[in-house]
Design goal:
It is a single chain. 44% of the residues lie in helices and 16% in strands. The protein contains 26 helices and 21 strands. Strands 3-4-2-5-6-1-7 form a seven-stranded parallel β-sheet, with helices on both faces. Strands 8-13-12-9-11-10 form a six-stranded parallel β-sheet, with helices on both faces. Strand 10, helix 11 and strand 11 form a beta-alpha-beta unit. The longest helix has 19 residues. The radius of gyration is 28 Å and the shape is globular. The two termini are 41 Å apart.
Length: 633
């Protein structure tokens, strides 16, 4: 039997697994197709990294989260494990180098974005790879009913056909029962096989705070509850405004969104993780893969548009098991704003066709041409030229992606990278007359490893600091060395991409079928409604509401959300309520009883006992038949 614990100890330093990690590892290790449902912070990566290290060959990891992909590759390399990533925005040369390393370089992990799966180059190289297992992270993205459906995920079934005997591990932190079944069908599971970890977070109190003064309420909450916090907002501009506002009220804060450069993101994330900043104000671009267990507060200033997104973001609080709070601030206008998002996310079909036509004008694409062409996309410039709003254009392009006309990737951070095109011995034979160039080459070789076999991510700022050159001098020198074929330097840039997946069509003939538009819109409307219901409800435990949404039936209230606390404040202390409730349920476990008999037996105030009985009946924790009270079966 494989000793997975010794691998865990060797590479991660842990003595034992958590939750259902070991069950998932054993299942996939025995070659069974496996679906693991684990909440945010449940330790998903361990469930594929450990069994992959126990097997000969390569683990193919499919994930849409490029930032997380880069982060995991970096972390594995720090542990001495060979890992590599392929995603949109890389050059053809980089992709070929990476894939050939997977064939010849004894790599253990290849992280790949789903969009790259059906490229000719990948499918050719895949045939020569020894793949031990396939991991599909964020697997809810394959389901039409998932909150973040991505058409590129449907290509995974084709990869399975190329590797028929290779087992697949699907992982997700958020899936309704409908999505759980759909994932297994779409990934062609040989047999249903699901491992579920309870989504209940016993240390996390869910609070909805109704207020028309969100800024004032935010300061009030942060003053009342100590510790590290994340504040989520919907747009980038607001992250900066809220951060400035908090600092003006002597609450140390910084802000984070996808539009910042990598160095700034890293600096702010590090400052927050180390406690230099107490509060991180961010868009939902922040949080994936962030390992900070002592977050005491997650506050949403704006509504997420699905319980799935809310559950994932709120779940970043209290991963250390200590008491934490997830607070949703709710103003009257939020309902209107949330409903408006439906129209922004699903603009009219004619508008979508118009955007498609304008994209063709933008790239001067002739009718019948385009298939396979890739372009950087400047959404601000496009919107200015054709008089569009960015939010609706972004939505239209995502729908056109689902319909198969093009592939639109969100804004991505493509860090600068380089590889030496000369062999090491050839490099040492070069007579370099320029002392600055020679110095820069020496520092590059000292600062980064593997430069002769693979592209390495570099920082021009770091190289400038170490060499005493300006950043511009570093850039110019690297461009010059590229022209001299000594190395190949790809400067970093931040941009979305548009790839034509088929020839340009007449706009009037663009088909937006029911499964691409109407079904998705209805599904989105249901999630928006569920989010509004969650906030509007004031007579049901919030934890139970969220758990039921994900198909988990919970027999007890959490006792700590705002609904539970408000209800118990109506004359009873929380502890007193729980004591009486426990005593009543224990009595009914022995035999059915009349209410007056319970009052007679228990040594509590009659009025309090009757209040608790009323509550337990309303929550269906006990039942009543012909005057007799029974324990619920």
């Amino acid at each position: 039997m494989t000793d997975y614990k010794s691998i865990l100890k060797q590479y991660w330093g842990y003595d034992s697994f958590r939750g259902i990690q070991e069950e998932i590892i054993s299942s996939i290790g025995e070659g069974r197709d496996t679906l693991g449902l684990m909440p945010t912070g449940g330790g998903k990566s361990i469930t594929f990294q450990v069994p992959a290290l126990a097997k000969p060959g390569l683990c193919l990891v499919i994930t849409p989260l490029i930032a997380l992909m880069k982060d995991q590759v970096q972390n594995l390399r720090k542990r001495g494990i060979k890992a590599i990533a392929v995603y949109s925005g890389m050059t053809r040369e980089e992709i070929i180098v990476a894939l050939e390393n997977c064939i010849f370089g004894d790599y253990k992990f290849l992280y790949i974005s789903p969009e790259r799966l059906d490229t000719e180059i990948f499918q050719i190289k895949l045939r020569s790879m020894k793949v031990s297992m396939i991991t599909v992270d964020e697997s809810h993205c394959i389901s039409q009913w998932g909150y973040d459906f991505r058409p590129a995920y449907l290509k995974i079934a084709d990869v399975r056909r190329l590797l028929p005997d290779v087992p697949i591990l699907a992982l997700t932190a958020t899936a309704t029962p409908e999505v759980v079944k759909d994932i297994q069908v779409r990934l062609a599971f040989r047999k249903e096989n699901v491992f579920r970890m309870s989504f209940e977070r016993k240390n996390l109190a869910y609070i909805v705070r109704r207020t028309e003064d969100k800024a004032g309420e935010l300061v009030h909450i942060l003053t009342q509850v100590a510790g590290s916090a994340i504040v989520y907002t919907r747009n980038r501009k607001r992250t900066k405004e809220v951060s400035l506002f908090l600092n003006q009220h002597d609450i140390s804060a910084t802000f984070y969104h996808a539009g910042l450069d990598n160095a700034t993101k890293d600096q702010r994330q590090k400052g927050w993780q180390e406690g230099t900043f107490r509060v991180m104000v961010a868009t939902n671009a922040f949080g994936m893969g962030i390992d900070k267990p002592d977050v005491r507060l997650v506050i949403h200033l704006d509504f997420p548009d699905s319980p799935e997104a809310y559950f994932q973001e709120a779940g970043r609080a209290g991963r250390d098991g200590q008491k934490a709070y997830a607070v949703l601030l709710y103003a009257q206008s939020d309902k209107t704003i949330l409903k408006k998002r439906i129209g922004d996310t699903f603009p009219e079909k004619e508008y979508i066709r118009q955007v498609y036509e304008h994209i063709n004008y933008y790239y001067q694409m002739a009718m019948g041409d385009g298939r396979g062409c890739t372009f950087a996309f400047n959404i601000e410039e496009f919107c200015q030229r054709f008089k569009h709003f960015p939010v609706r254009v972004d939505s239209a392009l995502k729908i056109l992606t689902r319909a198969g006309y093009l592939e639109y990737t969100d804004e991505q951070d493509n860090t600068s990278r380089l590889i030496f095109t000369l062999r090491r011995d050839e490099l040492y034979r070069i007579n370099e007359n320029n002392p600055d160039t020679e110095k820069l080459l020496r520092i590059i070789l000292r600062s980064y490893t593997g430069l002769f076999s693979d592209y390495a991510y570099i920082s021009e700022e770091t190289l400038a600091r170490r060499s005493g050159l300006t950043r511009q001098q570093v850039y110019d020198t690297l461009i010059l060395l590229t022209k001299r074929h000594i190395l190949h330097y790809i400067p970093g840039k931040k941009t979305p991409y548009i790839i034509y997946t088929r020839e340009r069509q007449e706009a009037s003939r663009v088909v937006l079928g029911r499964e691409v538009y109407e079904d998705r819109k209805q599904s989105y409307e249901r999630r928006v409604k569920a989010m509004i219901d969650y906030a509007d409800t004031d007579d049901r435990c919030r934890s139970r509401m969220l758990l039921e949404y994900f198909g988990e039936r919970n027999e007890h209230n959490c006792g700590q959300c705002d609904v539970c606390l408000d209800r118990h404040r109506s004359g009873l202390r929380l502890g007193e309520f729980e004591d009486i409730a426990h005593a009543i349920i224990s009595l009914l476990a022995e035999a059915p009883r009349m209410p007056q008999e319970i009052v007679h037996i228990l040594s509590y105030d009659e009025g309090k006992i009757l209040k608790v009985l009323t509550f337990l009946l309303s929550e269906e924790r006990i039942t009543r038949k012909e005057g007799w009270l029974y324990q619920r079966e």
